[in-house]
From TrEMBL:
Pfam family, one: STAS
Membrane topology label: Multi-pass membrane protein
Native organism taxonomy: Bacteria, Bacillati, Actinomycetota, Actinomycetes, Pseudonocardiales
Organism of this sequence: Pseudonocardia humida
Full protein name: SulP family inorganic anion transporter
Residue ranges of the TM segments: 52-68, 97-121, 128-147, 153-169, 176-197, 217-241, 309-342, 362-391
Amino acid sequence: MIRPALRPLRPSRPSWSSPRVLRTEALAGLVVALALIPEAIAFSIIAGVDPRIGLFASFTMAVTIAFTGGRPAMISAATGAIALVVAPLAREHGLEYLLVAVVLGGLLQVLLAVVGVARLMRFLPRSVMVGFVNALAILIFLSQLPYLVDVSWAVYGLLTVGLLVLVGLPRFTRVVPAPLVAIVALTGFTVVAGVAVPTVGDQGALPDSLPMLAVPVVPFTLGTFMIVAPYAIAIAVVGLLESLMTAKLVDDITDTHSDKTRESWGQGVANVVTGFFGGMGGCAMIGQTMINVKHGGARTRASTFLAGVFLLVLVVALGDVVALIPMAALVAVMIMVAVGTFDWHSVRPATLRRMPKSETTVMVSTVAVTVATHNLAYGVGVGVLVAMVLFARRVAHLVEVTGVLDPESTSKVYRVSGQLFFASSNDLVFAFDYAHDPADVVIDLSAAHVWDASTVAALDAITTKYAARGSTVRIVGMNENSLTRHTALAGLASAGH
């Protein structure tokens, strides 16, 4: 028998190896790198460290996460959230302690990934996600305002032209990213025309050497650990929260799924590497990610890697050229990022009229706290807490108790429907007519579910009240899960009363 010849197995080529795709990824990465420079410098100032510390962090975070991350095309670098967290440590104890906190924070992120913290993302309500996105859009916009205060009229002219290019060029062509065109054109104009406006070079000194691998010089004692541990925990939590929420946002935009567990430990590894290379740590950046994904059209890890490489090349080899870029050009890019990031549908009058007030309340509380504190963790934490309280309040009112007396008046059946937990079971005790019911009472829970010890304690209290009047109570119809919980806790939940 003649067997058909087998085709030799060829390794699948990565998607970015296509010249067309690689061109898109490279251009997107270049625009991101240009936008990262003033951001990294600004975040360094917030953290109270040399601008080179933020730039080195952006390089090492981007390059490392390109290999270790679980969300392709997402940009990780030095961020304002991390800068706010580490600023007190840098101010009180110096750079070396900050670097130790970054390394320890990265190790904690790896540990959290191993224990499955990424799975907790499913408990974040959509209204909190919308609030997160809107708050970050507002913060991105507000962060640009200082560059527009006490400046010459030329800055506003350049800003206007930049916005026109960013809005108008994509209507005609997307061959070259509009942000790149705006940056190059405005830089060329200011240089040729000799227009004096604030530039990237005015934001701080750019590095003239590569980052070096080194171990932080601190005493490795319990005292050092006690100093850096609180900051390391904050770095780990805030960094993971912002990174996972940004990853979920990119998933929605690209209609693809990413590995959140891998992203969690990937962020940890990136922070460990960053700490040892003298960077201030970081996490995913929603602004730069939106530039990369929405405006640049990037979809692979190549753009993330190239953004980090371009950043280092630009600030080290071409620092004198990069220093000439007018801040107005980058402000225009970031304003358009803020406009594109904001979920305008969520604030339309038609949407607000149809949306339940509880959902709007959660969204607004998330936005308000995040903007007021400039801390994503606080905003999301408050949003989740408000969502939980409003959900419990809403569900608690869905419990119904209906009593039916049999024709012979020898027994009465109470049918309970709904979710029974601490918020709804508190009023359960008052739904029965203890004084006038017959000696035989049946509580039918076939349409209900027992969720906690508070409900079991309420059922015990009901049984006790009837027993005091000589009546017998039978509880029937519980599903398997409710029966298991009731059997285990009956008589115990109320034993202390």
